[in-house]
Amino acid sequence: MANHTALISILCEDRPGLIADVTGRLYDLGINLGDTSFAVLGSGAKFTVVAKLPSDTSIADVEEELHSIPVLKGAEVSVSPFAYRETHDQTAHVTHRIEITGDDSPGLIARVSEALRPMGANIVELSSESVPGADAARFLLRMAIWVPAGKEAVCMATIGNTAGQMNLSCRWAQV
Predict the structure, then answer these.
(1) Phi, psi for 82 (deg, rounded to 5)
(2) How many angstroms separate the CA atoms of 152 and 83, rounded?
(3) pLDDT confidence band for 1 (50 / 70 / 90)
(4) Are 59 and 81 in contact (CB under 8 A)?
(5) pLDDT digits over 23-35, tens only?
(6) What is the 3 state secondary structure string of the chain?
(7) What global pTM score does this model have?
C-alpha cells in the first residue's frame, strides 16, 4: 500500500508544549506534515494538519497514538481520509495582509468577505478576537488574502471603505 493522506483535527484545552507533544508523536510515527494551522480559541486550541501517513500506518493507528498523549486527555481528536489535493493553487498564496480594528462590529467578517467575492479575491487565513481595551473590548480582525493581479487597488479600497463605514480602522500591506 502506498502512502496515504489524512486530515488530523484536534480541539483541546490550550497548554504549553501542546504543539511539541503532538508534532513529536507524529514525527515518531513517520508522518510527514503538510498544510498546518493552529489557533488559540478562548482557553481552547484547534490544531489541524494535512498529514502524509506511511504505508504501514492506518488512520486508526494515528488516532490511537494521539489519544495516548497526556496533554490530549479529554481532547476531541479526529483523523480521517483527506479527499482533496495536498497542494493548493495560486489562489491560496498570500498577496496581502489586512488588519481591521475598532469597536466590536457584528457582521464585519460577512461584509468584508462579501466585498471580496466580486473581485475574485480569496481569504487564505482569517483570525478575529476581542482585545481588552481601556474603555471596552476592542475587535481585531486579521486576514491574509490572495488578490488577482490588476485588482489590488480596487480590492484594498473596497476593504478600507467597508471598514470605514463601520467606524473601524484598516491597514494593509502587500506581501
Answers:
(1) -100, 110
(2) 32
(3) very low
(4) yes
(5) 999 999 999 999 9
(6) CCCEEEEEEEEEECCCCHHHHHHHHHHHCCCEEEEEEEEEECCEEEEEEEEEECCCCCHHHHHHHHHCCHHHCCCEEEEEECCCCCCCCHHHCCCEEEEEEEECCCCHHHHHHHHHHHHCCEEEEEEEEEECCCCCCEEEEEEEEECCCCCHHHHHHHHHHHHHHCCCEEEEEEC
(7) 0.83
User: What span, in angstroms and rounded, lies between the C-alpha atoms of 136 and 139?
Assistant: 10
Task: Tell me the C-alpha to C-alpha distance, in Å, between residue 39 and each of 7, 127, 138, 171.
Answer: 16, 8, 19, 22
Hey, how many other C-beta atoms are within 10 angstroms of the C-beta on 66? 20
